[in-house]
Amino acid sequence: MSSMRKSLAFLLPLAVFLAIAVFLFKGLWLDPREIPSPLIDKPAPDFRLESLEKPGRLVDRKDMLGKVWLLNAWASWCVACREEHPVLIEFARSATIPIIGLNYKDTRVDGMRWLAQFGNPYTTSAYDEAGRVGIDYGVYAVPETFLIDKQGVVRFKQIGPVTPELLREKILPLIQRLNA
What we know:
The chain is of the alpha/beta class. It is built from 5 helices and 7 strands, in the order αβββαβαβαββα. The protein folds into 2 domains: 1-30; 48-179, Glutaredoxin, CATH 3.40.30.
């Protein structure tokens, strides 16, 4: 009987190790940008922040009710934001829907310098210096983009840069359905 216990004592850690290895191995094929957001199909969190461009002017989520719009969390210190910025600039030229920026954990001076240097695709940018609104939206790494419908409900979330392919294949078709 003691040899059976020794066998079980050896097999239990091996079984635990194999179970963990299977989960880790499976994770190699998951795309971190496809983490489901608990906000999908729920009302977008309210916010009322000062405008980055016009201190004293308020940017309020409620002002966007009745419109389909994008909320794009960005920062001047964000390398991936630089990658997506030309895509947003080009998309803004189409005037398909408003793009509201959420300048996340940045300084006003750096955010304004960024927009002056790279162009401004945003209808306006809300200045979220402390990152509190970003936290409400579940932002943990910029850039992150949310597509919000006319009723103020989050319909899509992109973690990481918006690419031309993503815009063409997912975001634009969804915008067309939401505007129908």
